Amino acid sequence: MEKIGLVKSVKENTATIEIRRVSACGENCASCKGGCAPTNHYITAKNTIHASAGQYVKLEMENKHVLGAAFLVYIVPLVGMILGILLGIAVAEYLGYVTNKELIGFAVGLLFLGIFYSVISFIDKKIKQSKKMEVVITKIIH
Length: 142
Hints:
Layout: E1 2-11, E2 14-20, E3 40-46, E4 56-60, H1 63-95, H2 101-130, E5 136-140
Antiparallel strand pairs: 1-2, 1-4, 2-3, 4-5
Helix pairs in contact: 1-2
Organism: Anaerovirgula multivorans
Keywords: Membrane, Transmembrane, Transmembrane helix
Protein name: Positive regulator of sigma(E), RseC/MucC
């Protein structure tokens, strides 16, 4: 993944970078009727090339880490919820709650969704500590 950002502040060997989020209209907001407002994200990046505040920089992160994070955040909870719904319906049928089995399945699905998000939160803390998904400033643009 490569992005361009503006260095907002520098602290030791890290920098806070402002990245503009690209909207669906391609930042051609004057011709777009969507009414969306451009948003900015702030991230902390490793500053090995000694960029200073006010400079535009190129940021890089390994694609496999970005795809892995997207899978973890979007696909795993969905699979957990579907698994919970199916398990809830099966257990409800086994226990004889035939009339409310869908409602029970939905409730168990939401429970599994919450459990999976808790596990993802724990995994996220471990990943942050390991510095595997570190964003690095690779080039000063101007």
